[in-house]
Structure formats: structure tokens, C-alpha cells
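Re: your question about ATP synthase subunit a

S., sorry for the slow reply, the queue was backed up all week. Below is exactly what I fed in.
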Amino acid sequence: MEITPDSIVYWSWRGFTLNATLVYTWGVMLILVVGSWMITRRLGTGTEMSRWQNLLEVLVVGMRQQIRATSHQEAGRYLPFVGTLFLYIAVSNLLQLVPGFHPPTASLSTTTALAICVFVAVPVYGIANEGLVRYLRHYIRPTVFMLPFNVIGEISRTIALAVRLYGNIMSGTLIVGILLSLAPFFFPVLMQLLGLLTGMIQAYIFAVLAMVYIAAASAARR
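Result:
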């Protein structure tokens, strides 16, 4: 049983390895791009709308409300980044229901890349909201001696964000695999549903934590 999709190698040539993480990551991105194009190409403004547009509006309104409740700021500037994180993780975990699919979020390289995106987004949004000098000043609060500790705190929470998502998805996949090997006729449906619920919760937690970190570096800090 493969714990991480990194260990599934489809093709290798002169140091370049095409593993399941890369394949399924591009597959999820392709699904998101094509799905977004198909849903948004015929958007209507009337009272009658398609089911897909209705679903899209429910998702966007829900994410706007959650971002506004978390950051206490207007959600427009954060929605593209936080919404993309949530949709990518949610779709990756949702596709676990497809036989043979290996969620890229079960790879530490994927979760680390997502956490690095959050790590970069925090100062970008912080500087955009407060300016460079004012943003850098919070690293020396309450005294200048706190500078190394504040820097370590920024790095450690990024590592925790990556390990948290990876650990939860990987452990869920491992538990499902063990139970399926022990009782293949009793646990499949139940454990797949449990894994799906866990995946959705982890996508929500990752997006909320990303929003909390970004809000902490912006005006909400004041």
C-alpha cells in the first residue's frame, strides 16, 4: 500500500521524475480551470439561473461571509487567494472517491508548497495594507529583543500548517487502507464517506488558518 503519491513513479528520465503527485496535481488544476470556464461562460443576472451557477454563487457567498467573519475586513481582496486554496484542497480530497485517484494533498511536497504560498501571502497582504515600514515594525514588538522570536514564530507556523494538512490526509488514507485490507466487504463505503468528511474539514481549516495569518499581518492586528 502506497502511503504517499510521491512513491508512485510513472516515468523517470535523467533525474526528472513524473510521479503521482505531479500527475494528479495537474489533473485537479485542469478540472478547476475547465469547470470554472464552463460554469462562468454563460452567467446570467436574472432570477432564473442554471444549477451550476447557483452552486457557484453559494460557494462564493459562503467564502465571502467566512472571510469577513474571520478577518473583520472586506472579503474582496482575499477571496481569490483563500478561495483558490480552499477549492484546490477540497477538490483534491473530494476526488478520493474516484477509484485509483491519489490525492496530492497526501504528499508533504504539496502541503509544503501550499504553506509556502501562505507564507509569501502574509507579508504581501500585510505590506499592501499597512506599508513596508509599518508592517516590519510589528516584528520588534513589544521590544526589539523579540525580533528573532517573532521571525521563528512566522516560520514555525508555516511548517505547522504544512505538516498538519499532510498528517491528516496521509493518516486518513493509511487508516482506510488498513481497514479495507482487514474487512474489504464492510468498511469501504463507511470509510470513504469518513475520509470525504475529513478532507472537507481539512480544506476548511487550512483556508481559515491562512486567512487568520493574513489578517494578523494586516489592519486586523491593530
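The chain has one domain: 51-93+108-220. The CA atoms of residues 140 and 147 lie 5 Å apart.

Happy to talk it through on Thursday.
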